[in-house]
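Write out the 3D structure for:
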Amino acid sequence: MRIALVCLGILGFVSVGIFGYWREVVRAHNDRLQQLDVRLHVNGIRGKSSVTRLLAGVLRDGGYLTVAKTTGSAARVIGPTGEESPISRRGAATINEQIDIVAEHVSGGIEALVIECMAVRPLYQQYSQDFMVKSDITVITNVREDHQEEMGETLEEIADSMSVTIPYGGVLITAEDRPHLRDRLQANAEARGATLVYADPAAVADEDMQGFDYLQFKENVAIGLAVARILGIPRQAAIEGMWKSVPDIGVVRLRTYDIRGRRVLWVPLFAANDRESVIATFENLRAQFPPGAKVIGMLNNRHDRGRRAELFSHMVPDDLSTILDEVITLGAYEETVTATMVERGFPAERIHALGETVRPDLDQMLDTIAQLVDGPEGVLVGMVNIHTEQAEMLMEHFAHLQGEDHREELDEAREPARMPAGVARMQRAATRPAIPQVGRRRAL
């Protein structure tokens, strides 16, 4: 009996200690959030990482000391100068990471926080908004079909799931262009006493897009301009801030490489993995494809993304058969994906396995690509996901071919031209040679 009482006492003492520690962590976290002038929570199906980066650029060049955090293809913290640092994880990513980021990077002088929503399940999204971010402004970039297992099968259900991150009495910004979905978001915002602002891409001029050296969308830029209007940041400062922002690692940058004597345009379209985004991106890019060039799509499937594998196995024959001349399968689900594409009408002789059923080396991959490009020029499009052994091998090869022109995104973030105007002026002043003190009289 005495031992049981002692154990009970120890358990109670430990419980009190844990509760006290948790209470102090929550208090400190809330204090850090309260010091911020602006808190932005970026949600949506497509473009979250890109929009987070653009919004951080808008705020930096708008005069705010800003910290941003992305979750996308490579998790990053972006500091007030625009310089980036990778996020190290000892295990699987969890939404508690948001608290750690605030604790480590929201110091006394920071004025604004832009943070990408990590959560997928609606309950976790709501917890992230209500307790971790407490945003004044939430962005829902768009509503697309993805993560249906957690967020609902229909677009309306997905819109409702993301709406739990709308701030009570705050502002919701969206670039969703379908009226019935925007109306759904509007009703959800009104239920929370929030105002919906539509970021209309028609307000973005063609010249506004000329400062990007990668594929960017007017919808994303429109969101940046909407935030600038709300915060009173001049339009030109917002545009220049977005131009300076470093793109996410999965961004589409078109480059041409020599593959076995063939000129091949490489299109890394891995980050677009829902039907609407893929079709819209192809429509934007087709004008840049060499006339008459054969277009080869690489379906890169991961074991943990079976739903996407199914989606693309339908999309290729249903939506892309007039665009893709050949298809190469990489990674997992090769036999299932191939069978589905053939069943839906895509010719079997135009499908080529180079994934886990073959496990090719780099030379085998390059030989196959060169054989499929039957003319002097071709187009190679990476799709579905980034991380498989075959895709990473090919991307590493292309990065090596870039030689001195290749820049990692962390190096780009340190370029003086990308930093906010104030920081750039300070750096120029620091490197300016001292003015000789000729003829100056000594003080008495």
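The first helix runs from residue 2 to 34.
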